[in-house]
């Protein structure tokens, strides 16, 4: 099909709520390593990686090879029979997860992983209330939408009973109008206030992303989650770390984002980069939490042998290519270069993130911090024209999200920075 035919059929047969980037959508055709090509043959350096999904590069030969091998051997059996692929992945996950997390429940997506986490937290504690954070994104089911803390993702009805949202640690736009570190990280206290005023007093869980993803890579001060953890435990709750975006080395040095904040979660949820783009998610928990699940449950495709081998191969690639170290080193280099761009272009109000998860909040004016969604779109368009794919997010659609494959080097960073610099200069011209 031609680009035009694809877009015509898309309009005719696909839900319009599934939106695409760019005024003229880019029809993706093929990809390899750090690059993606559209249907017309234009090549792009991919600095969004399929929404932080393509962690080890497009069509990584090891991951693709394992998928091909498995698909010819056993594509599906459902969970009525155990497979080596599934238990080997579960064992590997137990090895890399922090603290006492040991058991996996496999799903097809991050949404389902969060659903299962909340369900099992309620069963394990006997409490019902869940506290999340404003500006969070948790998924597209009714429950996950209810945990989500952004109005544009909550439309269509949510089931808010038993779910409340505390203030988030958004230093650039502090909800308490304070400044770090003089604030004493006062925002953490709002979790206790939310428990006192919006729950029954005992909670099933607190759920949060170590760095808020769709919310615009909002990165908390280093003390925040430690303070919150103490509060959560005081009220009997489990700590759920939603690692759908931060998981699998993305933040550098550590496998999971929460490890940077020195908290041992009871449950981790993951998906996205877990299998480098194959549809798999997981709810990972301590043995006592996992064992507390009462009643039957099944996920027909959860733990599918093809996605399970893809996930294991992805973890092996991260180990073999030393990506925990690479992300830390190249991430720091990238950050310095982004701060250089910020010094040059007033549109960039804030630079934040960890490792190869870096965000740029774009503002019309650095004093008023008025969000610049129109300029964000313009920047995206210019970068596309200059052969660079980047992402965006944030409640006001004004945060550029940068999450390249984790095996890039300084050369790719220089290339991307040059294209971004050129794009920003063209916007000012
Ligand atoms: N949690 C977070 C932090 C996410 O970013 C997402 C997806 N953007 C989800 C959950 C839901 O994952 P999925 O789209 O795979 O259902």
List the helices and strands and how they pair.
Layout: H1 3-13, E1 28-32, E2 35-38, E3 43-46, H2 49-52, H3 61-71, H4 84-96, E4 103-107, H5 110-125, E5 129-133, H6 142-147, E6 163-166, H7 189-198, E7 203-208, H8 224-234, E8 238-242, E9 267-270, E10 281-285, H9 287-291, H10 305-320, H11 323-344, E11 348-354, E12 357-362, H12 373-385, E13 388-389, E14 391-393, E15 399-402, H13 410-428
Parallel strand pairs: 3-13, 5-6, 5-7, 7-8, 8-9
Antiparallel strand pairs: 1-2, 2-3, 4-10, 9-10, 11-12, 12-15, 14-15
This protein binds 4'-deoxy-4'-aminopyridoxal-5'-phosphate (PMP).
Characterization of the model:
The structure is a single chain. The chain has helices at 3-13, 49-52, 61-71, 84-96, 110-125, 142-147, 189-198, 224-234, 287-291, 305-320, 323-344, 373-385, 410-428, and strands at 28-32, 35-38, 43-46, 103-107, 129-133, 163-166, 203-208, 238-242, 267-270, 281-285, 348-354, 357-362, 388-389, 391-393, 399-402. With 429 residues, the protein is an alpha/beta fold. The protein has a seven-stranded mixed β-sheet, with helices on both faces. A four-stranded mixed β-sheet has the order 1-2-3-13. It has a four-stranded antiparallel β-sheet with strand order 11-12-15-14. Helix 3 runs antiparallel to helix 10 (305-320) and helix 12 packs across helix 13 (410-428). The mean pLDDT is 97. 4'-deoxy-4'-aminopyridoxal-5'-phosphate binds at residues 109-111, 114, 137-140, 209, 213-214, 242, 244-245, 271, 281.
């Amino acid at each position: 099909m031609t680009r035009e035919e694809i877009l015509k059929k898309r309009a005719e047969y696909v839900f319009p709520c599934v939106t695409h980037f760019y005024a003229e959508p880019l029809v993706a055709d093929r990809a390899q390593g750090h690059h993606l090509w559209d249907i017309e043959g234009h090549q792009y350096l991919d600095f969004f990686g399929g929404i932080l999904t393509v962690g080890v590069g497009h069509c990584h030969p090891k991951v693709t090879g394992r998928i091909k091998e498995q698909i010819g051997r056993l594509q599906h059996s459902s969970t009525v029979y155990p497979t080596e692929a599934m238990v080997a992945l579960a064992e590997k996950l137990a090895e890399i997860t922090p603290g006492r997390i040991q058991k996996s429940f496999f799903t097809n997506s991050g949404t389902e992983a969060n659903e299962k986490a909340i369900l099992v937290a309620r069963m394990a504690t006997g409490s019902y209330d869940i506290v999340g954070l404003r500006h969070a994104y948790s998924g597209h089911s009714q429950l996950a939408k209810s945990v989500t803390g952004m109005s544009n993702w909550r439309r269509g009805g949510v089931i808010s009973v038993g779910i409340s949202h505390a203030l988030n640690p958004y230093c650039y736009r502090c909800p308490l109008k304070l400044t770090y570190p003089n604030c004493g990280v006062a925002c953490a206290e709002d979790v206790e206030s939310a428990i006192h005023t919006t729950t029954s007093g005992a909670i099933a869980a607190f759920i949060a992303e170590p760095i808020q993803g769709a919310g615009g890579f909002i990165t908390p001060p280093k003390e925040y989650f430690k303070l919150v953890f103490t509060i959560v435990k005081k009220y009997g709750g489990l700590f759920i770390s939603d690692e759908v975006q931060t998981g699998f080395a993305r933040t550098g040095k550590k496998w999971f984002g929460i490890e940077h904040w020195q908290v041992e979660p009871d449950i981790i949820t993951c998906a996205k980069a877990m299998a480098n783009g194959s549809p798999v998610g997981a709810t990972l928990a301590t043995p006592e939490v996992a064992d507390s699940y009462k009643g039957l449950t099944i996920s027909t495709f959860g733990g599918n042998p093809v996605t399970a081998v893809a996930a294991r191969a992805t973890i092996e690639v991260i180990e073999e290519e030393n990506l925990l170290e690479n992300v830390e080193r190249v991430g720091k280099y990238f950050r310095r270069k982004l701060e250089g761009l910020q010094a040059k272009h007033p549109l960039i109000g804030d630079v934040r993130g960890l490792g190869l998860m870096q965000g740029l909040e774009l503002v019309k004016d650095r004093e008023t911090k008025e969000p610049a969604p129109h300029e964000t779109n313009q920047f995206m368009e210019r970068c596309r024209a200059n052969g660079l794919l980047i992402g965006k997010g944030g409640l006001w659609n004004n945060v550029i999200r940068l999450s390249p494959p984790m095996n890039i080097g300084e050369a790719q960073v220089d290339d991307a920075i040059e294209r971004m610099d050129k794009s920003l200069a063209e916007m000012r011209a």
